[in-house]
Design goal:
This protein has 123 residues and is α/β, with parallel strands linked by helices. Helices cover 47% and strands 19% of the residues. It has a single domain (3-121), classed as 3-Layer(aba) Sandwich (Rossmann fold). It has five helices and five strands; from the N terminus they run E-H-E-H-E-H-E-H-E-H. Helix 2 runs parallel beside helix 3 and helix 3 (60-69) packs parallel to helix 4.
Amino acid sequence: MAMILIVEDDPNVARLVGLVLTRNGHQSEVVSDGDAALRRVREIRPDIIFADLGIKGMSGQTLCSTLKSEEATRSIPYIILSGDRDLAEKAQDCGADDYMGKPFEFDDLLRLVAKYAQSRTTD
């Protein structure tokens, strides 16, 4: 079971993603802005972070860059979920581990969880 932090300011998307993860045996927590996300990542050290680019406060891209620049949080898989048309470029720029465009299929979300949760447990 993975502990997944969802950084998403659309409550409907956040609730749906959380529900899918819970139904598939994972724990999740939702935060809606970048500053709260940074605080929670440092406190709970999630196994995976799913974050939108367009969030309140610190942007998803800045959050990603910040976490990837810190020794303690660098190894946590950071996956961007966004409808941004420059998604691939922004994900690469900030050092994200992966990205997925919105809207997305839940099966694809779960495949990403399986891929990155497994890599965390074998580290």
